[in-house]
Input
Amino acid sequence: MDDHFAAFSFVDRIVEYDAGRRARGRYAVPADLAAFPPCLVAEAVGQLAAWVAMAQVGFRGRPVAALANETRFRSGVAPGSTLDLAVDIESCDEHAVAYAGRASVDGTHVIELVDCLGPMLPVEEFDSPAELAARFELICGAGAPAGRFRGVEAPRVVRTAGVPGVSASATLFVPESAPFFGDHFPRRPVFPATLLLDSQIGLAMGVAAEATHWRTGTKPAPSRMTHVKMRSFMPPGAAVDIDAELVPSGPEGATLRLAARMDGKTAATARLEVIAKAARP
Amino acid sequence: MTQAQISQEDILAVLPTVAATIADALGCDLEDVKPDASLIDDLDAESIDFLDMVFRLERAFKVKIPRGKIVENARGTLTEAAFEQNGLVTDVGLAQLRSYLSEVPPERFKTPTKVKDIPRLFTTETFCKLVVAAQRETKAAG
Output
């Protein structure tokens, strides 16, 4: 199966479109997936914003993940759900797109993105402008066939150091090849920022779970992610050092400072806020 | 940006918020964000940080700061050909740059100055001026 518009594409149809200003879309999460993590929900919202931005500049530029000031995690999304996506474009030109967005399932918000900004890069470096324009026409019309996403294999993450409940360091090995590289992006494979964030959240939640300051009967859960800043593209085969450091903020919460480094340089930073939730018996 | 009309009082009025915004964007200590600190050489800012700082300042001050035009603005009324040649700032361009970035200590201007190195000159105060200019444009636009 051709991976383009299949292996890492999360907008099946655009149902409302106000050029350069706002859009609403849908994505059917395949029912046979084992899970659909929040980072992929955020990816879906970002992709809807990217379609609006690319159309706005005549498919000469495409935004890439760079800044997300705040992502609020509301609830999980079960496979088989239909995501209702919405984006409001604050500004969009040949330099950057600034937007906010959200995803809902059955009328309930599952994720909200606030104050996001993606710099626009020449689209031909990443994909075929003509194919993108044709795809946009398709999803604005009858819609694309649903169910083509087959899931993403989690990258290998090897924990290298840390202090239980305080910090953790690990190396994330970006695969040399994976179906999503055929979609993200066909002409320049890049490890999706949302998959990096997913691995970082996993490392961070491990640290949070080890912490001992939580009130009895509660356990930590991700609440929101702030200060996300992507500085470098991560190519296939890259080894990325990721760190999470926990700063308690009382018995009800904590902030984890996240960093990713590649070739000795900071490649991404973010903060994850976790809150105590009643542990299920 | 018309610095000649931007007073020190104007700058001081926005400095605390600008400095706090820069510190938040760069993840550095507020005390390190001095008015004359070079954002690149002293605070390790990269191009994505400039985008971040402008984005945050727009929110903090409810203004629009045109992205990608900070260096272009430095040219003032000079044509591109008069301002730079082969990637180097001309003598006339350098005089314009010194005037535009009057807050930057003179010793930081190199001869020759590469166009791509102009952002190295930007300081906290440069961003204060950007904000004041944007505030005036917003006010003028009604």
